[in-house]
Amino acid sequence: MHSPDLTSVGIVAPQTARFDQPIVLRSGATLPGYELVYETYGALNADKSNAVLVCHALSGNHHVAGYYSEQDKRPGWWDNMIGPGKPIDTERFFVIGLNNLGGCHGSTGPSSIDPSTGKPYGAAFPVVTVDDWVETQARLADLLGIRQFAAIVGGSLGGMQVLQWSITYPERLRHALVIAAAPKLTAQNIAFNDVARQAILTDPDFHGGDFYAHGVTPKRGLRLARMLGHITYLSDDVMGSKFGRLLRSGAFQYSYDVEFEIESYLRYQGDKFAESFDANTYLLMTKALDYFDPTHHQEDSSLSLALKPASAKFLVIAFTTDWRFAPDRSREIVKALLDNERDVAYAEITSSHGHDAFLMLEPHYHDLVRAYMQRVAREGQP
Amino acid sequence: MSTVSRSDFETIAQWIPSGAKVLDLGCGDGSLLRYLQDTRGAKGYGVEIADEKILACIQNGVNVIQTDLESGLSGFETHSFDFVVLSQTLQAMKHTEVIVREMLRVGRQAIVTFPNFGFWQHRLQVFGGHMPVSSDLPYQWYDTPNIHLCTLKDFEAFCATHGVRILERIVMHRGAAVQALPNLLGSLAVYRLERLE
Fold it and tell me: How far is CA B109 from CA A315, B152, B191, in A?
Protein backbone atom coordinates (compact mmCIF):
# COMPACT_ATOMS: atom_id res chain seq x y z
CA MET A 1 0.00 0.00 0.00
CA HIS A 2 1.00 3.56 -0.64
CA SER A 3 2.04 5.30 2.54
CA PRO A 4 -0.87 7.51 3.56
CA ASP A 5 0.78 10.90 2.98
CA LEU A 6 -2.12 13.13 3.97
CA THR A 7 -0.59 16.19 2.34
CA SER A 8 -0.27 14.59 -1.07
CA VAL A 9 -2.91 14.71 -3.74
CA GLY A 10 -2.13 10.98 -4.12
CA ILE A 11 -2.18 9.06 -7.37
CA VAL A 12 -2.86 11.26 -10.36
CA ALA A 13 -3.22 10.69 -14.08
CA PRO A 14 -2.70 13.07 -16.97
CA GLN A 15 -5.45 13.88 -19.43
CA THR A 16 -5.25 15.11 -22.99
CA ALA A 17 -7.30 17.87 -24.58
CA ARG A 18 -7.51 18.00 -28.36
CA PHE A 19 -7.97 21.35 -30.13
CA ASP A 20 -8.99 21.30 -33.76
CA GLN A 21 -9.46 25.01 -34.17
CA PRO A 22 -6.27 26.32 -35.83
CA ILE A 23 -4.12 28.75 -33.88
CA VAL A 24 -2.25 31.61 -35.49
CA LEU A 25 0.90 32.09 -33.49
CA ARG A 26 2.67 35.34 -32.70
CA SER A 27 5.37 34.38 -35.25
CA GLY A 28 2.72 34.33 -37.97
CA ALA A 29 2.83 30.55 -38.31
CA THR A 30 -0.38 28.55 -38.00
CA LEU A 31 -0.88 25.22 -36.28
CA PRO A 32 -3.98 23.52 -37.67
CA GLY A 33 -4.56 21.62 -34.45
CA TYR A 34 -2.77 20.56 -31.30
CA GLU A 35 -3.04 18.64 -28.07
CA LEU A 36 -2.39 19.79 -24.54
CA VAL A 37 -1.73 17.34 -21.76
CA TYR A 38 -2.83 18.42 -18.30
CA GLU A 39 -3.52 17.26 -14.77
CA THR A 40 -6.03 18.50 -12.25
CA TYR A 41 -6.12 18.21 -8.45
CA GLY A 42 -9.00 18.96 -6.14
CA ALA A 43 -12.59 19.54 -7.21
CA LEU A 44 -14.07 22.31 -9.31
CA ASN A 45 -16.88 23.92 -7.33
CA ALA A 46 -20.41 24.40 -8.65
CA ASP A 47 -19.92 27.96 -9.91
CA LYS A 48 -16.44 27.08 -11.25
CA SER A 49 -14.87 29.90 -9.28
CA ASN A 50 -12.12 28.02 -7.45
CA ALA A 51 -9.78 27.14 -10.32
CA VAL A 52 -6.05 27.83 -10.03
CA LEU A 53 -3.81 27.55 -13.06
CA VAL A 54 -0.15 26.68 -12.54
CA CYS A 55 2.16 27.82 -15.34
CA HIS A 56 5.43 25.95 -15.64
CA ALA A 57 8.96 27.22 -16.20
CA LEU A 58 11.63 26.23 -18.72
CA SER A 59 11.85 22.53 -17.96
CA GLY A 60 8.56 21.98 -16.14
CA ASN A 61 5.45 20.20 -17.26
CA HIS A 62 1.88 19.27 -16.37
CA HIS A 63 2.89 16.88 -13.58
CA VAL A 64 2.80 19.45 -10.81
CA ALA A 65 1.73 17.34 -7.83
CA GLY A 66 1.06 13.78 -6.77
CA TYR A 67 2.40 10.41 -7.89
CA TYR A 68 1.75 8.23 -10.92
CA SER A 69 1.70 4.94 -9.05
CA GLU A 70 2.06 3.35 -5.65
CA GLN A 71 5.72 2.70 -6.47
CA ASP A 72 6.44 6.16 -7.87
CA LYS A 73 9.11 7.79 -5.72
CA ARG A 74 9.18 11.22 -7.35
CA PRO A 75 6.12 13.40 -7.03
CA GLY A 76 5.24 16.28 -9.36
CA TRP A 77 7.65 19.22 -9.54
CA TRP A 78 5.74 21.50 -7.14
CA ASP A 79 4.34 18.84 -4.83
CA ASN A 80 5.62 20.72 -1.76
CA MET A 81 3.36 23.66 -2.68
CA ILE A 82 0.21 21.93 -3.87
CA GLY A 83 -1.91 19.39 -2.02
CA PRO A 84 -4.44 19.00 0.78
CA GLY A 85 -3.46 21.44 3.53
CA LYS A 86 -0.52 22.75 1.52
CA PRO A 87 -0.11 26.46 0.62
CA ILE A 88 -2.15 25.96 -2.54
CA ASP A 89 -4.74 23.83 -0.83
CA THR A 90 -6.46 21.28 -3.07
CA GLU A 91 -9.28 21.00 -0.52
CA ARG A 92 -10.28 24.54 -1.46
CA PHE A 93 -8.96 24.91 -4.98
CA PHE A 94 -9.22 23.07 -8.26
CA VAL A 95 -5.63 23.18 -9.49
CA ILE A 96 -4.67 22.72 -13.13
CA GLY A 97 -1.19 22.01 -14.43
CA LEU A 98 -0.52 21.68 -18.13
CA ASN A 99 2.38 21.04 -20.45
CA ASN A 100 2.77 24.08 -22.66
CA LEU A 101 2.50 23.97 -26.42
CA GLY A 102 5.92 23.09 -27.81
CA GLY A 103 6.72 20.98 -24.77
CA CYS A 104 8.05 17.45 -24.77
CA HIS A 105 5.91 15.75 -22.13
CA GLY A 106 2.79 15.01 -24.13
CA SER A 107 1.56 18.32 -25.49
CA THR A 108 2.10 18.95 -29.18
CA GLY A 109 5.70 19.98 -29.73
CA PRO A 110 8.71 19.49 -31.98
CA SER A 111 8.95 15.78 -31.16
CA SER A 112 5.26 15.15 -31.96
CA ILE A 113 4.20 13.67 -35.29
CA ASP A 114 3.23 16.29 -37.86
CA PRO A 115 0.00 14.90 -39.32
CA SER A 116 0.79 16.42 -42.71
CA THR A 117 4.05 14.46 -43.09
CA GLY A 118 3.67 11.55 -40.70
CA LYS A 119 7.08 12.44 -39.23
CA PRO A 120 8.13 14.44 -36.16
CA TYR A 121 7.88 18.19 -36.67
CA GLY A 122 11.51 18.74 -35.70
CA ALA A 123 12.80 22.00 -37.17
CA ALA A 124 9.41 22.61 -38.78
CA PHE A 125 7.74 23.24 -35.43
CA PRO A 126 7.08 26.95 -35.14
CA VAL A 127 8.59 29.15 -32.45
CA VAL A 128 6.04 29.66 -29.69
CA THR A 129 5.86 32.71 -27.41
CA VAL A 130 4.42 33.42 -23.97
CA ASP A 131 1.44 35.12 -25.65
CA ASP A 132 0.78 31.91 -27.57
CA TRP A 133 0.86 29.89 -24.37
CA VAL A 134 -1.62 32.20 -22.72
CA GLU A 135 -3.89 31.81 -25.73
CA THR A 136 -3.73 28.01 -25.63
CA GLN A 137 -4.16 27.97 -21.85
CA ALA A 138 -7.26 30.15 -22.26
CA ARG A 139 -8.64 27.62 -24.72
CA LEU A 140 -8.04 24.85 -22.22
CA ALA A 141 -9.88 26.93 -19.61
CA ASP A 142 -12.78 27.35 -22.06
CA LEU A 143 -12.88 23.60 -22.56
CA LEU A 144 -13.06 23.05 -18.80
CA GLY A 145 -15.79 25.70 -18.50
CA ILE A 146 -13.64 28.07 -16.43
CA ARG A 147 -14.48 31.69 -17.16
CA GLN A 148 -12.34 33.17 -14.43
CA PHE A 149 -9.48 31.72 -12.42
CA ALA A 150 -9.34 32.38 -8.70
CA ALA A 151 -5.59 32.68 -9.25
CA ILE A 152 -2.90 32.01 -11.80
CA VAL A 153 0.45 31.05 -10.34
CA GLY A 154 3.91 30.68 -11.83
CA GLY A 155 7.61 30.93 -11.08
CA SER A 156 10.32 32.13 -13.46
CA LEU A 157 9.08 31.71 -17.06
CA GLY A 158 5.81 30.63 -15.41
CA GLY A 159 5.62 34.03 -13.71
CA MET A 160 5.95 35.68 -17.11
CA GLN A 161 2.90 33.74 -18.28
CA VAL A 162 0.98 34.99 -15.24
CA LEU A 163 1.95 38.58 -16.11
CA GLN A 164 0.84 38.07 -19.71
CA TRP A 165 -2.46 36.58 -18.54
CA SER A 166 -3.13 39.66 -16.44
CA ILE A 167 -2.59 41.85 -19.51
CA THR A 168 -4.29 39.76 -22.20
CA TYR A 169 -7.26 38.49 -20.20
CA PRO A 170 -7.57 40.79 -17.18
CA GLU A 171 -11.14 39.68 -16.51
CA ARG A 172 -10.20 36.01 -16.42
CA LEU A 173 -8.14 36.00 -13.21
CA ARG A 174 -8.79 37.49 -9.78
CA HIS A 175 -5.28 37.00 -8.42
CA ALA A 176 -1.83 36.78 -9.98
CA LEU A 177 1.07 35.13 -8.14
CA VAL A 178 4.28 36.11 -9.92
CA ILE A 179 7.26 34.36 -8.35
CA ALA A 180 10.98 34.75 -9.13
CA ALA A 181 10.12 36.38 -12.43
CA ALA A 182 11.11 39.41 -14.49
CA PRO A 183 9.19 41.71 -16.79
CA LYS A 184 11.67 40.84 -19.56
CA LEU A 185 15.12 39.33 -19.83
CA THR A 186 18.28 41.39 -19.63
CA ALA A 187 21.05 41.14 -22.22
CA GLN A 188 23.02 38.96 -19.80
CA ASN A 189 20.09 36.58 -19.48
CA ILE A 190 19.62 36.35 -23.24
CA ALA A 191 23.36 35.76 -23.54
CA PHE A 192 23.17 32.73 -21.23
CA ASN A 193 20.28 31.39 -23.27
CA ASP A 194 22.17 31.83 -26.48
CA VAL A 195 25.22 29.93 -25.23
CA ALA A 196 22.83 27.13 -24.22
CA ARG A 197 21.26 27.16 -27.68
CA GLN A 198 24.64 27.22 -29.38
CA ALA A 199 25.62 24.11 -27.45
CA ILE A 200 22.62 22.31 -28.93
CA LEU A 201 22.72 23.83 -32.41
CA THR A 202 26.38 22.94 -32.92
CA ASP A 203 26.05 19.37 -31.67
CA PRO A 204 26.65 17.17 -34.76
CA ASP A 205 23.76 15.00 -33.62
CA PHE A 206 21.35 17.94 -33.89
CA HIS A 207 20.95 17.61 -37.67
CA GLY A 208 19.31 20.99 -38.01
CA GLY A 209 16.59 19.93 -35.59
CA ASP A 210 15.58 16.81 -37.51
CA PHE A 211 17.64 14.38 -35.44
CA TYR A 212 14.64 12.09 -34.87
CA ALA A 213 15.00 10.69 -38.40
CA HIS A 214 18.64 9.87 -37.70
CA GLY A 215 17.85 7.89 -34.58
CA VAL A 216 20.05 10.12 -32.41
CA THR A 217 19.56 12.97 -29.95
CA PRO A 218 21.98 15.89 -29.44
CA LYS A 219 22.74 14.82 -25.89
CA ARG A 220 26.12 16.49 -25.63
CA GLY A 221 24.64 19.87 -26.54
CA LEU A 222 21.60 19.47 -24.34
CA ARG A 223 23.79 18.38 -21.47
CA LEU A 224 26.02 21.44 -21.80
CA ALA A 225 22.97 23.69 -22.09
CA ARG A 226 21.58 22.27 -18.88
CA MET A 227 24.88 22.46 -17.03
CA LEU A 228 25.17 26.14 -17.91
CA GLY A 229 21.56 26.80 -16.99
CA HIS A 230 21.94 24.96 -13.71
CA ILE A 231 24.89 27.13 -12.66
CA THR A 232 22.76 30.22 -13.17
CA TYR A 233 19.86 28.80 -11.15
CA LEU A 234 22.04 28.33 -8.07
CA SER A 235 23.78 30.96 -5.99
CA ASP A 236 27.50 31.16 -5.36
CA ASP A 237 26.66 30.71 -1.65
CA VAL A 238 24.75 27.49 -2.04
CA MET A 239 27.30 26.01 -4.43
CA GLY A 240 30.01 26.95 -1.98
CA SER A 241 28.29 25.43 1.01
CA LYS A 242 27.19 22.29 -0.84
CA PHE A 243 30.35 21.54 -2.79
CA GLY A 244 33.03 24.10 -2.04
CA ARG A 245 36.29 22.75 -3.43
CA LEU A 246 35.60 19.19 -2.37
CA LEU A 247 37.46 16.61 -4.41
CA ARG A 248 36.03 13.20 -5.23
CA SER A 249 39.28 11.37 -4.53
CA GLY A 250 40.66 13.74 -1.93
CA ALA A 251 43.72 14.77 -3.95
CA PHE A 252 44.51 16.46 -7.25
CA GLN A 253 44.90 14.03 -10.14
CA TYR A 254 46.40 16.56 -12.54
CA SER A 255 44.07 15.40 -15.28
CA TYR A 256 40.93 16.55 -17.08
CA ASP A 257 38.68 13.92 -15.57
CA VAL A 258 36.00 14.70 -13.02
CA GLU A 259 37.82 15.83 -9.89
CA PHE A 260 35.79 18.43 -8.08
CA GLU A 261 32.44 17.45 -6.62
CA ILE A 262 30.77 20.35 -8.40
CA GLU A 263 31.91 18.92 -11.74
CA SER A 264 30.45 15.58 -10.87
CA TYR A 265 27.18 17.13 -9.75
CA LEU A 266 26.78 19.28 -12.84
CA ARG A 267 27.59 16.42 -15.20
CA TYR A 268 25.09 14.20 -13.43
CA GLN A 269 22.40 16.89 -13.70
CA GLY A 270 23.29 17.44 -17.36
CA ASP A 271 23.18 13.74 -18.19
CA LYS A 272 19.88 13.19 -16.42
CA PHE A 273 18.31 16.11 -18.25
CA ALA A 274 19.69 15.13 -21.66
CA GLU A 275 18.13 11.69 -21.27
CA SER A 276 14.64 13.01 -20.75
CA PHE A 277 14.27 16.39 -22.44
CA ASP A 278 13.83 17.26 -26.09
CA ALA A 279 16.50 19.53 -27.56
CA ASN A 280 14.06 21.36 -29.84
CA THR A 281 11.77 22.07 -26.90
CA TYR A 282 14.73 23.46 -24.98
CA LEU A 283 15.52 25.80 -27.86
CA LEU A 284 11.89 26.84 -28.11
CA MET A 285 11.49 27.50 -24.38
CA THR A 286 14.63 29.63 -24.20
CA LYS A 287 13.44 31.63 -27.20
CA ALA A 288 10.07 32.18 -25.55
CA LEU A 289 11.98 33.57 -22.55
CA ASP A 290 14.07 35.87 -24.74
CA TYR A 291 11.10 37.20 -26.70
CA PHE A 292 8.92 37.87 -23.67
CA ASP A 293 8.49 41.62 -23.32
CA PRO A 294 5.05 43.01 -22.58
CA THR A 295 6.42 46.50 -23.29
CA HIS A 296 7.42 45.50 -26.83
CA HIS A 297 4.54 47.42 -28.39
CA GLN A 298 4.56 50.30 -25.90
CA GLU A 299 6.10 53.67 -26.51
CA ASP A 300 9.04 54.31 -24.16
CA SER A 301 8.97 50.56 -23.37
CA SER A 302 6.83 51.50 -20.39
CA LEU A 303 5.94 48.57 -18.19
CA SER A 304 3.43 50.77 -16.39
CA LEU A 305 1.64 51.33 -19.67
CA ALA A 306 1.84 47.63 -20.53
CA LEU A 307 0.29 46.65 -17.19
CA LYS A 308 -2.47 49.22 -17.39
CA PRO A 309 -5.10 46.69 -18.50
CA ALA A 310 -4.29 44.35 -15.58
CA SER A 311 -7.01 44.27 -12.93
CA ALA A 312 -5.97 41.24 -10.87
CA LYS A 313 -4.58 41.53 -7.38
CA PHE A 314 -0.91 40.58 -7.28
CA LEU A 315 1.46 38.76 -5.01
CA VAL A 316 5.01 39.25 -6.26
CA ILE A 317 7.80 37.24 -4.65
CA ALA A 318 11.56 37.35 -5.23
CA PHE A 319 14.51 35.62 -3.57
CA THR A 320 17.55 37.47 -2.25
CA THR A 321 20.23 35.32 -3.91
CA ASP A 322 18.43 34.88 -7.22
CA TRP A 323 20.75 36.59 -9.69
CA ARG A 324 19.14 35.19 -12.83
CA PHE A 325 15.78 36.82 -11.95
CA ALA A 326 16.98 39.23 -9.30
CA PRO A 327 14.70 40.99 -6.78
CA ASP A 328 15.24 44.28 -8.62
CA ARG A 329 13.46 42.80 -11.63
CA SER A 330 10.46 41.91 -9.47
CA ARG A 331 10.53 45.44 -8.09
CA GLU A 332 10.08 46.72 -11.63
CA ILE A 333 6.85 44.76 -11.79
CA VAL A 334 5.78 46.09 -8.39
CA LYS A 335 6.58 49.65 -9.43
CA ALA A 336 4.48 49.32 -12.60
CA LEU A 337 1.59 47.93 -10.55
CA LEU A 338 1.90 50.81 -8.07
CA ASP A 339 1.88 53.28 -10.94
CA ASN A 340 -1.47 51.78 -11.95
CA GLU A 341 -2.75 51.71 -8.35
CA ARG A 342 -3.24 47.96 -8.47
CA ASP A 343 -3.39 45.84 -5.34
CA VAL A 344 0.00 44.28 -4.78
CA ALA A 345 1.98 42.62 -2.04
CA TYR A 346 5.70 42.18 -2.55
CA ALA A 347 7.94 39.93 -0.49
CA GLU A 348 11.66 39.40 -0.79
CA ILE A 349 12.50 36.02 0.67
CA THR A 350 15.89 35.54 2.29
CA SER A 351 17.22 32.34 0.79
CA SER A 352 20.60 30.98 -0.19
CA HIS A 353 19.20 28.85 -3.01
CA GLY A 354 19.32 31.31 -5.89
CA HIS A 355 16.68 31.11 -8.60
CA ASP A 356 15.80 27.53 -7.69
CA ALA A 357 14.53 28.76 -4.31
CA PHE A 358 11.06 29.14 -5.79
CA LEU A 359 10.82 25.35 -5.95
CA MET A 360 12.13 24.77 -2.42
CA LEU A 361 10.31 24.28 0.82
CA GLU A 362 11.32 27.59 2.39
CA PRO A 363 8.97 27.91 5.43
CA HIS A 364 8.48 31.69 5.28
CA TYR A 365 7.90 31.58 1.53
CA HIS A 366 5.30 28.85 1.92
CA ASP A 367 3.65 30.70 4.81
CA LEU A 368 3.25 33.76 2.59
CA VAL A 369 1.74 31.82 -0.28
CA ARG A 370 -0.53 29.99 2.16
CA ALA A 371 -1.72 33.25 3.75
CA TYR A 372 -2.27 34.79 0.35
CA MET A 373 -4.18 31.80 -0.98
CA GLN A 374 -6.37 31.84 2.15
CA ARG A 375 -7.26 35.39 1.22
CA VAL A 376 -7.95 34.28 -2.35
CA ALA A 377 -10.31 31.65 -0.95
CA ARG A 378 -12.01 34.17 1.38
CA GLU A 379 -12.54 36.66 -1.40
CA GLY A 380 -13.90 33.92 -3.61
CA GLN A 381 -16.86 33.54 -1.23
CA PRO A 382 -18.96 36.67 -1.64
CA MET B 1 3.22 48.35 20.89
CA SER B 2 -0.44 47.42 20.79
CA THR B 3 -1.94 47.51 17.36
CA VAL B 4 -5.61 48.18 16.64
CA SER B 5 -6.15 50.35 19.67
CA ARG B 6 -3.08 52.51 19.13
CA SER B 7 -4.17 55.99 20.05
CA ASP B 8 -2.58 57.70 17.08
CA PHE B 9 -4.74 55.72 14.61
CA GLU B 10 -7.93 57.65 15.18
CA THR B 11 -6.07 60.94 15.12
CA ILE B 12 -4.47 60.00 11.82
CA ALA B 13 -7.76 58.71 10.42
CA GLN B 14 -9.58 61.97 11.08
CA TRP B 15 -7.12 63.72 8.76
CA ILE B 16 -7.58 61.25 5.92
CA PRO B 17 -10.48 62.15 3.62
CA SER B 18 -12.45 59.22 2.28
CA GLY B 19 -10.94 57.51 -0.74
CA ALA B 20 -7.49 59.04 -0.17
CA LYS B 21 -4.36 57.22 -1.31
CA VAL B 22 -2.13 56.47 1.66
CA LEU B 23 1.39 55.08 1.99
CA ASP B 24 2.19 53.80 5.47
CA LEU B 25 5.92 53.51 6.13
CA GLY B 26 6.91 50.89 8.68
CA CYS B 27 3.34 49.65 8.53
CA GLY B 28 3.84 46.73 10.93
CA ASP B 29 1.04 44.19 10.63
CA GLY B 30 -0.98 46.61 8.51
CA SER B 31 -3.58 47.46 11.16
CA LEU B 32 -3.51 51.21 10.47
CA LEU B 33 -4.02 50.56 6.76
CA ARG B 34 -6.77 48.06 7.53
CA TYR B 35 -8.37 50.69 9.78
CA LEU B 36 -8.11 53.38 7.10
CA GLN B 37 -9.44 51.01 4.46
CA ASP B 38 -12.40 50.03 6.63
CA THR B 39 -13.26 53.44 8.07
CA ARG B 40 -12.14 55.78 5.29
CA GLY B 41 -12.26 53.67 2.15
CA ALA B 42 -8.63 54.61 1.71
CA LYS B 43 -6.49 53.06 -1.01
CA GLY B 44 -3.53 51.97 1.05
CA TYR B 45 -0.06 50.55 0.64
CA GLY B 46 2.38 49.66 3.38
CA VAL B 47 6.14 49.44 3.45
CA GLU B 48 7.82 47.01 5.83
CA ILE B 49 11.17 45.31 6.22
CA ALA B 50 10.42 42.49 8.70
CA ASP B 51 9.43 39.11 7.27
CA GLU B 52 6.88 38.31 9.97
CA LYS B 53 5.15 41.65 9.46
CA ILE B 54 4.92 41.11 5.70
CA LEU B 55 3.16 37.85 6.49
CA ALA B 56 0.85 39.63 8.97
CA CYS B 57 -0.03 42.24 6.33
CA ILE B 58 -0.93 39.54 3.84
CA GLN B 59 -3.06 37.86 6.50
CA ASN B 60 -4.69 41.26 7.12
CA GLY B 61 -5.40 41.64 3.42
CA VAL B 62 -3.45 44.87 2.96
CA ASN B 63 -1.02 45.83 0.22
CA VAL B 64 2.56 45.70 1.43
CA ILE B 65 5.93 46.18 -0.23
CA GLN B 66 8.98 44.66 1.45
CA THR B 67 11.58 47.41 1.40
CA ASP B 68 14.21 48.87 3.66
CA LEU B 69 13.07 52.41 4.43
CA GLU B 70 16.64 53.44 5.11
CA SER B 71 17.35 53.13 1.39
CA GLY B 72 14.71 55.75 0.56
CA LEU B 73 11.52 55.59 -1.48
CA SER B 74 12.98 55.33 -4.98
CA GLY B 75 10.31 52.77 -5.91
CA PHE B 76 7.61 55.43 -5.54
CA GLU B 77 6.79 58.25 -7.92
CA THR B 78 6.78 61.88 -6.85
CA HIS B 79 3.39 63.01 -5.52
CA SER B 80 1.88 59.59 -6.15
CA PHE B 81 0.17 59.54 -2.73
CA ASP B 82 -2.15 61.92 -0.91
CA PHE B 83 -0.61 61.03 2.43
CA VAL B 84 2.57 59.33 3.51
CA VAL B 85 2.41 58.17 7.13
CA LEU B 86 5.34 57.41 9.41
CA SER B 87 3.81 56.19 12.63
CA GLN B 88 6.16 55.82 15.62
CA THR B 89 9.09 54.95 13.41
CA LEU B 90 10.92 58.26 12.91
CA GLN B 91 12.79 57.88 16.17
CA ALA B 92 14.17 54.52 15.05
CA MET B 93 15.40 55.67 11.64
CA LYS B 94 19.05 56.18 10.85
CA HIS B 95 18.49 58.64 8.00
CA THR B 96 15.95 61.02 9.51
CA GLU B 97 16.47 63.88 7.09
CA VAL B 98 16.30 61.64 4.04
CA ILE B 99 13.07 59.95 5.05
CA VAL B 100 11.27 63.21 5.84
CA ARG B 101 12.38 64.65 2.50
CA GLU B 102 11.31 61.46 0.69
CA MET B 103 7.90 61.43 2.43
CA LEU B 104 7.20 64.96 1.23
CA ARG B 105 8.34 64.09 -2.28
CA VAL B 106 6.12 61.00 -2.62
CA GLY B 107 3.15 62.38 -0.70
CA ARG B 108 1.32 65.67 -0.99
CA GLN B 109 1.23 65.64 2.79
CA ALA B 110 2.99 63.63 5.45
CA ILE B 111 1.80 62.48 8.84
CA VAL B 112 4.45 61.77 11.43
CA THR B 113 3.95 60.45 14.94
CA PHE B 114 6.61 59.89 17.58
CA PRO B 115 6.98 59.54 21.34
CA ASN B 116 7.76 62.89 22.99
CA PHE B 117 11.08 62.65 24.80
CA GLY B 118 10.16 65.88 26.59
CA PHE B 119 7.23 64.26 28.40
CA TRP B 120 7.53 65.05 32.12
CA GLN B 121 7.97 61.43 33.21
CA HIS B 122 10.88 61.09 30.81
CA ARG B 123 12.43 64.31 32.08
CA LEU B 124 11.99 63.15 35.64
CA GLN B 125 13.81 59.90 34.98
CA VAL B 126 16.68 61.68 33.28
CA PHE B 127 16.74 64.12 36.20
CA GLY B 128 16.92 61.10 38.49
CA GLY B 129 19.96 59.91 36.58
CA HIS B 130 18.40 57.29 34.28
CA MET B 131 17.42 56.89 30.67
CA PRO B 132 13.62 57.00 30.55
CA VAL B 133 11.55 53.84 30.34
CA SER B 134 7.79 54.26 29.97
CA SER B 135 4.81 52.83 28.13
CA ASP B 136 5.78 55.04 25.17
CA LEU B 137 9.48 54.25 25.45
CA PRO B 138 9.33 50.68 26.65
CA TYR B 139 12.98 49.80 26.04
CA GLN B 140 16.14 49.78 28.09
CA TRP B 141 19.00 51.93 26.80
CA TYR B 142 20.87 48.83 25.63
CA ASP B 143 18.10 47.20 23.63
CA THR B 144 16.20 50.18 22.27
CA PRO B 145 15.72 50.56 18.53
CA ASN B 146 15.20 54.28 19.15
CA ILE B 147 18.28 56.18 18.07
CA HIS B 148 16.84 59.59 17.17
CA LEU B 149 14.54 60.57 19.99
CA CYS B 150 13.36 64.16 20.13
CA THR B 151 10.99 66.54 21.86
CA LEU B 152 8.23 68.57 20.24
CA LYS B 153 10.51 71.62 20.26
CA ASP B 154 13.32 69.69 18.63
CA PHE B 155 11.05 68.39 15.87
CA GLU B 156 9.58 71.80 15.19
CA ALA B 157 13.04 73.33 14.96
CA PHE B 158 13.95 70.56 12.50
CA CYS B 159 10.92 71.39 10.36
CA ALA B 160 11.84 75.07 10.34
CA THR B 161 15.33 74.36 9.06
CA HIS B 162 14.34 71.63 6.60
CA GLY B 163 11.67 73.34 4.52
CA VAL B 164 8.78 71.56 6.21
CA ARG B 165 5.54 73.36 7.02
CA ILE B 166 3.55 72.11 10.00
CA LEU B 167 -0.13 72.12 9.05
CA GLU B 168 -1.50 70.66 12.23
CA ARG B 169 -0.27 69.20 15.49
CA ILE B 170 -2.06 67.04 18.02
CA VAL B 171 -0.34 66.10 21.23
CA MET B 172 -1.72 63.23 23.25
CA HIS B 173 -1.36 61.32 26.44
CA ARG B 174 -3.11 58.02 27.04
CA GLY B 175 -5.36 58.55 24.04
CA ALA B 176 -6.58 62.02 25.07
CA ALA B 177 -5.52 65.31 23.50
CA VAL B 178 -3.27 67.50 25.63
CA GLN B 179 -3.87 71.25 25.36
CA ALA B 180 -1.72 72.89 28.05
CA LEU B 181 2.08 72.55 28.16
CA PRO B 182 2.15 69.93 25.42
CA ASN B 183 5.93 69.45 25.42
CA LEU B 184 5.70 68.57 29.10
CA LEU B 185 2.35 66.82 29.42
CA GLY B 186 2.09 65.04 26.08
CA SER B 187 3.66 61.63 25.53
CA LEU B 188 2.78 61.22 21.86
CA ALA B 189 3.06 63.77 19.07
CA VAL B 190 1.10 63.64 15.82
CA TYR B 191 1.98 66.07 13.05
CA ARG B 192 0.53 66.80 9.64
CA LEU B 193 3.16 68.27 7.32
CA GLU B 194 3.73 69.54 3.82
CA ARG B 195 6.70 70.78 1.91
CA LEU B 196 7.45 74.49 1.86
CA GLU B 197 7.71 75.29 -1.85
Answer: 28, 19, 10
